[in-house]
Design goal:
The chain is of the alpha/beta class and 513 residues long. It has twelve helices and 19 strands. The termini are far apart.
């Protein structure tokens, strides 16, 4: 489901020869293997720690007399760190949860309180949060989701849809719809609201673009760097904002260049506004020929994240997600069974949901959705979980990154004690950012601090890092903590070890070997 490369290049050559477009306008990125692909160096590492090697003996006595003084073992507890976790959807494209006699606020609260997850997610239409220019007026389920997120100390991710086939009419507000043109796509029984005739807005209309920029600026003013927001989805073309209008061929734009330029403009505006909060872009192949490959490439190069909206999808999406740069988080969405016989999809005693979860782990995911597609309710999630808890429990204890100082070496040099930390990752994903280590005393005095290279430690191998303590300071009794830096913002990281962790998430250094 991507543009044929030969056809595209032929088209590009003919357009250039005719004088329609200059080469500088093209951002089309052909399909490529992602492993070792040059996406740039990733986020800049400040205060980089020496990461070895660390010879003990002459002629290269970097750590003379080095000896292991402490070791840790992996924990099986569920962690609540930034950049990872199971996610409860409280609203999807079909709307919020529904149950006769129970309010939306109550139903969302029942979802938010579930201890299966540490994150929430809400997806709704532009018209649900804005009805007139210059102001946001949030629908009740938006307000309820953020209220519950704060109540249960759970961060929330969200997407604002600019097209939604699951509802009557348009996803954009009336004040925008009445000022722009739409292109008729047609009618289909494969997706969406029954008997709906689908229309695509002219995203390139100046009024549409100005209104979108105002919307995004108002959202960013409220939620960029918010303690409640985990990530924000990139606003892409088409149905659900996924980057396509399948099964319809074509798009509403006069040519590919106009389409690509439009969505580059929209992405760059979001990237400028969301300076602290990660943006998440769908890995959707460019079925509708609207510039998806360029938006995805810009997402990686700006140190933002990627996602897919189903696990059984095109092989190019699997390539991108499983071989992404180490510092990039992968958000995986796929509905689970509600526990009813017809939804279990049992084959050889294995449920469809368990098969999905195994593939989520194959991709090395940072996030996964706990969600009944179009049938959102807490009791439905629990109906499945009570029958088949094992794979969800396993994923909860493996998803994302789970870091700990497995080895700690002590040495002395020039009157200073030094430590080398051998940091390992027991999770399934690399660290989606930069890991900072800080050594401090009981009085909170920082004695040493610095960072690993972006994306380290990975799930395989040991990343060593050295710190030198001030002269006269003994290592025993000090504390070491970890933080993750994403888009220049630091978040605390709970160590994933069985040894006792302090209330602030740090580990006290003491002889344990």
């Amino acid at each position: 489901m991507r543009l044929n490369r030969r056809d595209f290049l032929s088209l590009a050559a003919s357009m250039t020869a005719a004088g329609f477009v200059s080469k500088s306008l093209y951002g089309f990125v052909p399909e490529h293997n992602w492993e070792k692909y040059d996406f740039g160096g990733g986020p800049k590492v400040k205060d980089r720690l020496n990461q070895g090697p660390f010879p003990t003996y002459p002629p290269e006595q970097v750590v003379p007399g080095s000896d292991v003084v402490m070791a840790t073992t992996p924990s099986q507890r569920v962690l609540n760190n930034f950049g990872m976790g199971l996610v409860t959807y409280v609203c999807d494209e079909a709307g919020p949860p529904k149950k006769t006699g129970v309010s939306v606020e109550e139903l969302i609260d029942e979802l938010a309180v579930l201890d299966l997850t540490h994150k929430l997610y809400i997806r709704l239409d532009w018209k649900d949060i804005q009805s007139k220019p210059g102001n946001l007026n949030f629908c009740p389920h938006w307000d309820a989701a953020f209220k519950s997120a704060k109540k249960y100390n759970k961060k929330i991710g969200f997407r604002i849809q600019l097209m939604n086939p699951e509802i009557p009419g348009h996803a954009i507000p009336d004040f925008v719809a009445e000022k722009i043109d739409f292109v008729k796509l047609g009618k289909t029984d494969k997706i969406g609201y029954p008997n709906k005739i689908h229309y695509a807005p002219r995203y390139d209309n100046p009024y549409f673009l100005d209104a979108f920029k105002d919307l995004d600026k108002m959202l960013a003013d409220l939620y960029n760097d918010s303690s409640l927001v985990e990530y924000v989805d990139t606003c892409m073309y088409g149905f659900w904002g996924e980057g396509h209008t399948w099964p319809f061929q074509g798009n509403p734009f006069p040519d590919y260049i106009t389409a690509e330029k439009t969505f580059v403009t929209m992405f760059e505006h979001q990237a400028q506004n969301w300076t602290k909060t990660p943006l998440v872009t769908n890995t959707q192949p460019d079925y509708s020929q609207v510039g998806n490959s360029e938006i995805l490439d810009r997402t990686i190069r700006s140190n933002n994240w990627i996602r897919t909206d189903t696990i059984y999808i095109e092989n190019t999406q699997i390539e991108a997600l499983s071989n992404r740069p180490a510092w990039v988080s992968a958000v995986i969405e796929n509905g689970i069974s509600d526990g009813t016989k017809e939804s279990l999809n049992l084959i050889n005693g294995v449920s469809g949901t368990d098969r999905i979860i195994s593939h989520v782990m194959d991709l090395g995911a940072n996030y996964y959705s706990i969600w009944n597609w179009h049938r959102i309710r807490a009791d439905r999630i629990l109906n499945y979980y009570k029958q088949f808890p094992d794979m969800i429990n396993l994923l909860a204890r493996k998803i994302g990154y789970r870091v700990r100082p497995s080895w700690i070496w002590k040495f002395e040099k020039d009157g200073h004690q030094g430590l080398v930390f051998g940091i390992v990752n027991d999770g399934i994903a690399p660290v989606p950012g930069i890991l900072r280590l800080t050594v401090y005393d009981d009085n909170k005095n920082i004695l040493a601090s610095g960072c690993l290279d972006a994306g380290y430690p990975k799930p395989q191998g040991v990343r060593q890092a050295q710190v030198i303590l001030p002269k006269g300071i003994d290592w025993k009794g000090l504390k070491v903590k970890a933080e993750i830096e994403v888009k220049d913002k630091l978040y605390p990281v709970e160590w994933s070890c069985r040894e006792n962790i302090n209330e602030d998430g740090s580990l006290t250094l003491s002889p344990l070997i």
